[in-house]
Each structure stands twice: as structure tokens, then as C-alpha cells.
Write a structure and sequence with these properties.
Blueprint lengths: L5 E3 L6 E3 L12 H42 L1
Antiparallel strand pairs: 1-2
The protein binds zinc ion.
Amino acid sequence: MTDNIVLQCPECKKPVHWTEKFPHRPFCSARCKHLDFGDWANEENRIPGRTLAQDEQALDGLGDQDKEVDNY
Ligand SMILES: [Zn+2]
């Protein structure tokens, strides 16, 4: 059995033993787990921005088409 696995808490980098003593693994504590969840929320907030960037690219493409129409 691999019961000597030790990870680093993704939040505070403290050693986390992969045992029942750390029910919040891979986080060392519920606090770090919630902190990471906050990061996830931020990532989700970034997705609309990414979509906007994609929309901008689409608009750029439309702009090029307009230019061609103007030249034509
Ligand atoms: Zn931690």
C-alpha cells in the first residue's frame, strides 16, 4: 500500500499526508481548500473576458471583410 504519500498543499505548500488525517487533501485544511476555490471563481470570471477576446477576433475578421468590400 502507498500510505506514505506526502503532497504539498497547493495553497500554502505545507506537507499534506495522503491519509485520513487530512480530509481536505490535497489541501492541508478547509481554509486552503476555500482559498483555492476562490481562485477557481476568479478563473471563471476570466472566461467571459476570453470570450470577449474571441469576439474581438471575430469582429476583426468582419472588419477585414468590410475593408475588402470598401476596396472593391
Ligand atoms: Zn494549506
